[in-house]
Predict the structure of Small integral membrane protein.
Amino acid sequence: MSMAVVGMVAGMALAFAGYFGGFGAFLLVAALGAVGFVVGRLLEGDLELGDFFRSRERGDRRR
């Protein structure tokens, strides 16, 4: 499945949540979608858990 289709499905899910459930449901679906995205990236091996908790040193600035 292409990333465009995944983005379209995510947008439609947010639109349905916002329309039928209000702004609170929209925020809940968006937050759970972000958590699902991060967990998916962790399971694929694209991210490591230490990336979130490791502090950057002065010489290790990413731009």
Residues 23-44 form the longest helix (22 residues). The helical segments are 3-21, 23-44, 50-53. The chain has three helices and no strands. The chain has a mean pLDDT of 81.
